Amino acid sequence: MNALLSVRNLTVRYPGHTRTSAPVLAVDRASFDVSAGETLALIGPSGCGKSSTAAAVLMLRRPDGGEVRFGGRELTTLDEKALRSVRPAVQPVFQDPYGSLSPRLPVRDAVAEPLRVQGRWDPVAGPRRVAELLETVRLDPRLGERLPHELSGGQCQRVGIARALASEPRLLVLDEPVSALDPSVRAGVLNLLRDLQERLGLAYLFICHDLPLVRHFAHRVAVMDSARIVETLPAGALYTSGRPLEREPLGRSADVARTGSLSRAGSPRSGPA
Ligand SMILES: Nc1ncnc2c1ncn2[C@@H]1O[C@H](COP(=O)(O)OP(=O)(O)OP(=O)(O)O)[C@@H](O)[C@H]1O
User: Fold this and answer.
1) Which of 189, 194, 197, 264 is 20 to 30 A off residue 18, Cα-Cα?
2) What are the two backbone dihedrals, phi and then psi, of residue 72, each rounded to the nearest 5 degrees?
3) CB-side neighbour CA atoms (13 Å) of 107
4) Which of 11, 13, 24, when mutated, tests ligand 1's pocket best, judged by the most ligand atoms within 8 Å of its CB?
5) For 188, left (φ over 0), alpha (ψ -120 to 50), or beta?
6) Of 269, 254, 265, the residue nearest 48 (C-alpha)
7) How many Cα atoms occupy the beta-carbon half-sphere of 97 within 13 Å?
8) Ligand 1 mean position to 217 CA, how many Å?
9) Which residue is closest in CA terms to ligand 1's atom 17?
10) Which residues of 188-226 are buried (b: 16+ CB within 10 A; e: fewer)?
11) SS3 129
12) Cα(42) to centroid of ligand 1, in Å?
């Protein structure tokens, strides 16, 4: 099966922090595929390059090398005008549910915004579509009147997902989509994402620090360390029955895969979270 997203030798560099310091190599020749209906998790210690990879896939940052092929089109060579026709199909969902919404925009306008920006707003069908999108993410359409601060974190993240769905995407880049949420509401949002994937055949690039959650939610896992993808494996192979899986040593990332967790500081914790 042809991959929906095919990334080859992706390289992202940032300028050095001072005029004399060397550039930061944030992503070093990363290669991976994501198919329709599939979730590929991107895991690794803090600072290893996950968000930079996501930003390059979203074309929020032009890569410094490599290819990002989406739906058969090579994105890195497209100019901004050509990219505009592709952007709706690749949508982000970010970690901070409040930060990704404008504080003064009622929920219904936040969800309608992509339709307006893409010239697809219709005064009759538009409000109906917004209500339908809110129902799709299991929110009462009457919440559309509210401002983001009048919603819970979980409700706000559902609005973020509804807003992404308004563009009729084929790939969602989920950058730690539940890590800012109360543990009691995480499962609801993840179940929603899984149902949407099944119904709509969405592909997910899922950035996450929580390995038990990755094992539960993803199909495959790409392990990043120091800007490189060091291994890609089935999510079920991260570890089995809570017992460490015997694997060839791979340095820090292998420790992470064995022990089942990552700390924000980048050092693995001593056991499954
Ligand atoms: N705008 C920037 N300018 C300079 N360096 C940056 C910039 N953004 C990220 N970096 C550096 O690039 C490297 C990769 O950062 P990135 O945010 O992609 O990692 P990450 O794996 O997503 O980390 P985290 O899990 O903490 O979010 C880090 O060394 C980081 O300091």
Assistant:
1) 264
2) 85, -5
3) 30
4) 24
5) alpha
6) 265
7) 26
8) 25
9) 51
10) ebbebbeebbeebebbbbbbbbbbebbbebbbbbbbbbe
11) helix
12) 14
| Nearest-CA residue for atom 25 of ligand 1 | 46
Residue type, 231: E
* Ligand 1 atom nearest residue 51's Cα: 22
ipTM exceeding 0.90, yes/no: yes
Tens digit of each residue's pLDDT, the chain (273 residues): 579 999 999 999 999 878 788 899 999 999 999 999 999 999 999 999 999 999 999 999 999 999 999 999 999 999 999 999 999 999 999 988 888 899 999 999 999 999 999 999 999 999 999 999 999 999 999 999 999 999 999 999 999 999 999 999 999 999 999 988 988 899 999 999 999 999 999 999 999 988 889 998 999 999 999 999 999 999 988 865 444 333 333 334 444 444 444 433 333 322 322
What is the CATH class of 5-103+169-182+195-259?
alpha beta
| Token couple for 2 | 């042809």
| Gap between the Cα atoms of 181 and 152, Å rounded | 9
CA 97 remoteness from chain centre: 13
**Cα of 26 from ligand 1 centre, angstroms:** 6
Which residue has the least CA distance to atom 23 on ligand 1? 47
CB within 6 Å of ligand 1 — which residues? 14, 24, 26, 44, 46-52
